[in-house]
Amino acid sequence: MSKQDYNTIAKRMMDIKYMSNAVSILHWDSKTYMPPKGISQRGAQISILSRNIHELFVKPENGRLLDSCIKKSDELSEVENRNVELWKRDYDKATKLPSDLVQKLSNQQVLTENLWEEAKERSEYGLVKPEIKKLIELTKEKADRLNPEQNQYDTLIDIYEPKVTAEQITKYFTPLKEAVIKLVKKCEGQCDRDIMGIDPDMLSVECTQQQQQKLANFLMEFIGLNPEKSRLDTSEHPFTTGYANDVRITTHYLENDPMGSFYSVLHEAGHAIYELNLPQEHLWTPVGDTVSLGIHESQSRFIENIVGKNPTFIEYYYPKVLDMIPGFRKKSVSIEQFVRAINFVRPSKIRIYSDEVTYNLHIILRFEIERDLFAGKITVDDLPQVWNEKMDEYLFQEIEEDREGVLQDTHWYGGAFGYFPTYSLGNIYGGQMLHAMQEQIPSWKQMIARGDFQIIRNWLIENVHQKGSLYDPSDLIENISGERPKPQYFIDYMNHKYDKIYGF
Amino acid sequence: MSKQDYNTIAKRMMDIKYMSNAVSILHWDSKTYMPPKGISQRGAQISILSRNIHELFVKPENGRLLDSCIKKSDELSEVENRNVELWKRDYDKATKLPSDLVQKLSNQQVLTENLWEEAKERSEYGLVKPEIKKLIELTKEKADRLNPEQNQYDTLIDIYEPKVTAEQITKYFTPLKEAVIKLVKKCEGQCDRDIMGIDPDMLSVECTQQQQQKLANFLMEFIGLNPEKSRLDTSEHPFTTGYANDVRITTHYLENDPMGSFYSVLHEAGHAIYELNLPQEHLWTPVGDTVSLGIHESQSRFIENIVGKNPTFIEYYYPKVLDMIPGFRKKSVSIEQFVRAINFVRPSKIRIYSDEVTYNLHIILRFEIERDLFAGKITVDDLPQVWNEKMDEYLFQEIEEDREGVLQDTHWYGGAFGYFPTYSLGNIYGGQMLHAMQEQIPSWKQMIARGDFQIIRNWLIENVHQKGSLYDPSDLIENISGERPKPQYFIDYMNHKYDKIYGF
Question: Has A268 been annotated as catalytic?
């Protein structure tokens, strides 16, 4: 009977996954082609659909079916048992929260996020402070409801990165922080534009949107995004959405910044090949889905940074860029200068404009603040000051305005605590994957030096994408590399790469 | 308490309307931007969402709420009572059909439509005949279930054109048929290309897609489709979708046929301004929705034909076309020739390529066949022969292949019986609207002669769009014109127009 119960619950859960996927297409539409005045009816549509999906999901009968499957797990296959485990995990999360708390949280999130926009514009943290206080209280209540036995911040992290704790992250981030600060100082010494003749502004050249689109299409082909299953559009902020046989990425074409859209396309393409290459036979079930934000981010950063900013790949693509963006020819930037400009390391105030190295400090700073906030070591009142102090200590930046500081990102004001660390976890995972891949494909750099991405792509498909959610993130990393996640591989990768580029 | 029940049912029904609208956006996406391999997951999404919408709609509690509202109708406003009436009408339709019949019908429709594609390709009616027989039997059962007291075909017509019967349509179509055949014969005498120097092939000129797009944008502006609430894209077959503040039309750009997309844009724009100008205060309820296919078609045909093919409008736009489509200059087509070419009347075999006049004969033929089929006067076996005989009699066309005959349209094979007459009802309604408008705005032709569509547009908004579904189609026509629908105004319009163009 357990098999029959499994089939029943699987059918229900797959329907829900199909419906959620439909909602993400509606979201995509609202960011790409929807006429602007359609926004309020689209909001209503998405909220009504989401509520209906939630109601279908939390039906008590689903809980009974899942429990029945768990009781007779010996009648189910390994994959089926894993699906039951993951459905149950989400079912528990969805049913443990009383609906009035869900409602209050959702309202508070919308309110706080809207107010944050104004606060950021006016650079006035005080404006949003009373609301984010309330939001954090509600978020703590949520964490307690989800798991009264666990510390709150760990419960929140688990939403985005299953089975990873603040303690583990602290262990990863402490040596990472040390290594990055050391590397940044080294680079700072060398990166002075007067000494090295490298200047990231040399990447700013006149170009049309058509030229940038041409470049983007070249990348889509290089990565091997099947045009029968994917597409590229423009939106204000780049993102990836979709699943299985319909995965879509977006980019934005900024004035005089062709390499901006170039790397945003590579980043989103990394997300997209993950969604496109999940195990066919398990699609629409958890095992046939991506496993965590950290692993997702490892894929986008692997393509954007490890492959995309590798000097041998840059040497391969630079002549093509010169052809497609004639503005570069006029500047007569040498390939050496270009490689260094793409890999320029320079501390800055804004996370989303930071480089591959300093990016981690932006994340570590946010993680430490979140952790200490939920541990009660700091309060909402302290946030701007703590932010600014850490910015000074880690990135040598003096923050003068909250809009460049504690107000710069939307995450917290939308209630996403525990989300930030997944970005650097992605880097750490990616470094460890690179280490494993390098052993199996020692010639990977020669391949990208001639524009051949297929073997690397297949390696990622086989080792990451095809595993879906069969393993929790840390187990997946262990499967791939033989070791639990550790930051040393990513640190080694950075040190080795920048050593070579800057010749310390 | 009735007021409270009204609010409860209104909330539920509005949620359902929002969800259905979301489904139509997913459908639009599948015809415009969806990567081709996304088709099967999109099919699953739409079917799952539709089933969920259906389940929410047919809940017994909804029936109880509606009955309670009907019992205490004196506590509700006129609009509220009308909403209740229309919700109840649809609720009864949805609940009277046993779910196994719905399932059987849906399966048989898909099967028959797929087989029709092959049958049409091979021009072999026999291939699809056994399946369409079954489909018609199931459709008859559906009609009996919906209304056991009414004759089946009337019940089917009522789905698309509420409160209109086959007897009424016969009364409209009999004089229309006679008048059209007479007019076609007159035109045939005059339209000979050797005598009049008019040749519809003169509209075939070399042009790029960009040039056609420019023309389409000019029309969007002329009609006044607000770009904040609407958009134009390309798809294989032109269509309109959306509602309220987000209404989208599509067209297709055919080679060397700029006037093809020109008139398809005008047609769809006519549908679009209806959806865009429904009464704001009643949106998402039936009163704030379009009333019938016939009235919808009256709007598209009013813009496409009555306005769009009026000689004074053609005189206005022709210089612009000459500028935007340089190919026309090379052909040195005079304005008189161009007006006649746009309004060329020539019997043909294919409905969708036929002109404003003969189009009605294509519809009348289909209506008569449907009517006689459901009355048992002819059988599925007779269809090709009856089709071909009527084609010969009304349109003087000898049908040699079923693909040009009984297999040309998808409607019947998808189970849409009772749908075809709404096309010519749209013409008849449009003619009657024109008559009423002409009395109130005698100078309408001078207005379009100078490219001013605003007053006509406002007249349509005020008299048609803003009425939503407050009245059934025939009542709406009576409200506008003071008379029940009758074909004479459309007949007069045609005779007068073609008299002037061809100078009989």
Answer: yes
> Per-residue pLDDT for B193 more than 60?
no
Let me know: does B290 contact B278? Beta carbons within 8 Å.
yes
Which of these is catalytic: A268, A297, A304, A370?
A: A268
Question: Has residue B197 got a pLDDT over 60?
Answer: no
Which residue from A18, A33, A230 is facing B44, i.e. has the nearest CB? A18
Q: How far apart are CA A343 and CA A497, in angstroms?
A: 10
Of B268, B297, B368, B404, catalytic: B268
Contact list in B for residue A26 (CB cut-off 8 A) is 22, 25-26
Backbone φ, ψ for residue A450 (5° rounding): -110, 20
- A499 touches A445 (CB < 8 A): no
Strand order in the sheet with A240-243: A230-234, A246-251, A240-243
pLDDT band at A194 (very low <50, low <70, confident <90, very high): very low
Residues in chain A closer than 8 A to B246 (CB atoms): 34-35, 37-38, 41-42
Question: Taking the model in full, what pTM does it have?
Answer: 0.95
User: How far off is chain A from B272, nearest CA to CA, in Å?
Assistant: 14
* C-alpha span between B269 and B250 (Å, rounded): 9
List pLDDT tens digits, range B303-334.
999 999 999 999 999 999 999 999 998 888 89
Q: Tell me the pLDDT of chain B averaged across its residues.
A: 95
How far are the Cα atoms of A265, A332, B30 from residue B37, in angstroms, in the given order? 21, 43, 10
Query: Among partner residues B45, B227, B228, which is closest to A22 by beta-carbon distance?
Result: B45
CB pairs under 8 A between A and B: 102
User: Does residue A40 have a pLDDT over 70?
Assistant: yes
3-state secondary structure A102-152: HHHHHHHHHHHHHHHHHHHHHCCHHHHHHHHHHHHHHHHHHHHHHCCCCCH
Q: How far apart (Å, rounded) are the C-alpha atoms in residues A458 and A467?
A: 13
Q: Answer for the pair B493, B431: CB distance below 8 angstroms, yes or no.
A: yes
Contact status, residue B285 vs residue B269, Cβ threshold 8 Å: no
By C-alpha distance, which of A430, A493, A488 is closest to A463?
A: A430
Q: What is the mean pLDDT of the segment spanning A303-328?
A: 96
Q: How far does CA B255 lie from the centroid of its chain?
A: 25
The tokens for B111 are 């099967």
Shortest Cα distance, chain A CAs vs residue B228, angstroms: 5
- The CA distance from A444 to the nearest CA of chain B, in Å, is 31
How far does Cα B3 stand from its chain's mean position? 36
**In this structure, are residues B83 and B10 in contact, taking their beta carbons and an 8 Å threshold?**
yes
